[in-house]
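Session log. Operator J.P. requested a structure for one protein chain; no other inputs attached. Running the standard single-chain path with C-alpha cell output.
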Amino acid sequence: MDREKKYALLIDADNVSPKYIDLILRETKALRNVSIRRIYGDWTEIGKNTWKECLLENSVTPIQQYSYTIGKNASDSAMIIDAMDILYTRDVDGFVLVSSDSDFTKLAMRLRESGKYVVGMGESKTPSPFVKACDQFKTLDILIRSVMGEEISGKEKSRMAKPIRKKETDMDIVPITNLREIKATIFSLLKEHSDESGWMFLGELGNMVLKLYPDFDCRNYGFPKLSNLLESFKDVEVRREMAKDSHNQLVYVKRRDS
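Structure written below.
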C-alpha cells in the first residue's frame, strides 16, 4: 500500500482574504494529509480580527509576526524561514503556498528543486513568475465563483447555493490564462501526441496542459471536468469506453476531421 503523502499549508494573511478560507481548505482536501497548517501575519492589527473565528473553526495555527518597518510585509520572511525549516526537519512531500505576492517565487522554485510538489493559491492578480514557479496554481477569486452552486461549508451552503449576480467589480476578474490560449495549446498537443488514429488519452492531455499552465483548471472556465470543457469545442470529439479489467472508464479525445 502506497504511503499517504504529507503536505504543509502556509498562508500569507497579509495577501489573502479570510473569505477564501473554506475554499482553500476544500481544495487542500484533495491532497489528503495536510499535517501542518499555519497562517502568518501581525495579529495585533485591527484588520486581522476577521480571521479569528475561521482559524479556530478550521484548526489553522496563527503565527505572530510584527511589522517592524512601515510599508513592508513582515510575514513574508517568517513564512519563508518556516518553509525552509519544514523542508529540512519535517517529513513532507509538498507545500501549499497561499499568497498573491511574487516574493514567494524564489521559495517555490527552491522547494521544487528539493523534489517537493508545490501548489500555489492566490487571486488572478498574482504575478506570473510566482504562478509559473508552482507545479499547480489555484486562482481563488475565479474558483470561488465557479463553486457557488456547490457546498463549500455547512455554514455557507444555503447562501452559496443561490445564483449570485456578478458585481461590477467582478467583471474584470478573468482567468490568468485565457481560454483561447488553452484551446490552441490543446489542439497543438493533440497534433503532436495523438496516436495514428488521432486519439489521445484524456489524462495524458490534461497532465501536459497543466505542466505548461500551472494555473489551468477547467472550473476557471465554467466546466466541472476537462472532458466537459473539451465537449464544448465543436471541433473536438470525446470517446468513452470501459476498461477491460476494471470498472474504470477510459476517456479519449481527438480533433474532428475538417
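Operator note: Residues 74-89 form the longest helix (16 residues).
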